[in-house]
Amino acid sequence: MTGLSRLVIEGLVVELAPRWQARHRDRLAARARRRGIGAGAKHRFAFRDRLLATLVHLRHGLTHDVPFPS
Length: 70
Description:
It is built from two helices and no strands. The protein has helices spanning 6-29, 47-60. The protein is mainly α. The protein is 54% helix and 0% strand.
């Protein structure tokens, strides 16, 4: 669906996941909070799933209505 091999996607996950997590932590820490970081709702999709959704969207321009296989 993405046009990339599994090996390339794994490489992207390894390279981008730490950057995304650091940016996410920084964004949470930058604003005034009533609750501690980590409280509240959790992400519905893991970083790998978010990356795959982004790659499919960029390749096909599909909307979020397209189901993803589990």
